[in-house]
Amino acid sequence: MTNEFSGVLQPGATIGVLGGGQLGRMLAVAAARLGFHTMIYDPGRNCPAAQVANRHIATPWDDNEALDDFANACDVVTYEFENVPAETTERIAVAVPVCPGTKALAVAQDRLMEKSFVRGLGIATAPFGQVDDEASLRAALADPMTANGAILKTRRLGYDGKGQLRLKAGDDAVAAWAEMAGAPCILEGFVDFELEISVVAARGRNGSFRAFDPAHNIHRDGILRTSIVPAPVSADIAEEAKRIARMIMDGLDYCGVMGVECFVTRDDEVLVNEIAPRVHNSGHWTEAACLISQFEQHIRAIAGLPLGDPARHSDCVMENLIGDDVDRVPTLLEDGNCLVHLYGKAETRPGRKMGHVTWLAPPGRQAG
Ligand code: AMP
Predict the structure, then answer these.
(1) 14-98 and 127-189, same CATH topology
(2) If 24 and its partner were Cys, which of 59, 80, 221, 260 is the partner (CB 3.0–4.6 Å)?
(3) 127-189 domain in CATH 3.30.920.30?
(4) Which of 151, 195, 226, 260 to mutate to test the pocket of ligand 1 (most atoms within 8 A of CB)?
(5) Domain locations in the chain?
């Protein structure tokens, strides 16, 4: 196991981050505030995290010599995206603890393993079936679970709605299967949910657990647009979502922050859609509306420090600045009631997350 080291990192220790995107950038800033150094491993030159870190190793993922140098230079290693190759974390874990460990990564990388694991804990998900070929797709499409339609998803490497196909019972399995280009898939029954929420929570090395309040997430074109906190759900549902997050994290003997994305049905049932073994876009609001952000919470967890208080001092609305949205920054800066956070990306592209903005309001008053 990789999370079994018991020491507490001292200021001046080095935290390695696999991946150099905006999440790695925000982790590096949080680590610096606690006196740690950060080293980023990412093949991309001038990636967002490298701009604010102490060191950047810009070599390919399969450069074993560079991975070993990186591992040997770090006191703990974490990752900021879940598609880090398992061989990479396994190799690094020989030299230095990797938090969260390889198990969480393996489960989150494969939708079939993920949903099966969550179900195995007695937690509800959308109905699903394994699809490995045309025949299994045809059989799954004939299953009553597709009564409201279905979504065919690749088991691996899907994000922001990519690698997904909306289908309905009776659709042509041959054409649909051809579109997935032979990638192993799952077919999920379509859930007519009331709203989507997520819980961002932290688990310390000693099993301590702290959860931020659930956010209500609104997506457009498969990309998270807006997170609103508090989510418009009852206290019971909010607690249930946190309880579910804890069960999943305990089940993985997890260390660090995790995002758990859920559907809330019209019957007030909470179904888990996806887990992200890392800090999460729907938790960015915590940097503005909580004393301890998700980024600091993650650094605390992997450094063996006590977890901070996740209480929210304000209600808030977080909006992603996607593509040209970033042109609104001068106007947003004029607004004294919002926190603007930019990721240092030189090139604006459609669909690219360039930054985010969080508006605050006193509890009970509408933000934004
Ligand atoms: P995912 O990549 O699994 O997070 O899916 C992206 C988005 O597609 C989700 O945030 C939902 O809005 C929608 N979605 C995914 N799976 C389902 C489902 N089984 N039923 C209804 N909507 C879904």
Answers:
(1) no
(2) 80
(3) no
(4) 151
(5) 14-98, 127-189, 193-361
Ligand 1 and 196: CB distance under 6 A? yes
149 C-beta closer than 6 A to ligand 1: no
- Cβ-in-10-Å burial (0-12, 13-18, 19+) of 130 comes to middle
For ligand 1, atom 18, name the residue with the nearest CA.
Answer: 190
- pLDDT single digits (tens) 127-169: 999 999 999 999 999 889 998 899 999 999 865 556 789 998 7
Asked whether 212 and 200 are in contact (CB, 8 A), the reply is: yes
Q: DSSP secondary-structure letter at 125?
A: B
Q: Quick one: DSSP state of residue 4? A: T
Of the given ranges (46-50, 87-91, 210-214), which has the lowest mean pLDDT? 87-91
Instruction: Report the distance separating Cα 249 and Cα 203, nearest Å.
Output: 7
Question: Pick from 86, 72, 94: which is nearest to 16 by CA?
Answer: 72
- Three-state secondary structure along 225-261? EEEEECCCCCHHHHHHHHHHHHHHHHHCCCCEEEEEE
- Is 114 a pocket residue for ligand 1 (Cβ < 6 Å)? no
The response to whether residue 219 sits with its C-beta less than 6 Å from ligand 1 reads: yes
CA separation for the pair 221, 350 (Å, rounded): 11
Nearest partner of 200 among 278, 90, 145, 134, judged by Cα: 278
Please give the distance, rounded to the nearest whole angstrom, from the Cα atom of residue 193 to the centre of ligand 1.
Answer: 10
Whether CATH 3.30.70.20 fits 14-98: no
> CA torsion angle for 301, 303, 309, 313 (degrees, to 10)?
-100
Atom of ligand 1 nearest to the CA of 150: 19
Fold annotation for 193-361: D-amino Acid Aminotransferase; Chain A, domain 1 (3.30.470)
The verdict on the CB of residue 303 being under 6 Å from ligand 1 is no
- Do the beta carbons of residue 178 and residue 157 sit within 8 Å? no
Residue among 273, 274, 281 to mutate when testing ligand 1 (max atoms within 8 A of CB): 273
| Ligand 1 in reach of 2 Cβ (< 6 A) | no
* Tens digit of each residue's pLDDT (9 = 90 or more) over 167-206: 987 788 888 888 888 899 999 999 999 999 999 999 999 9
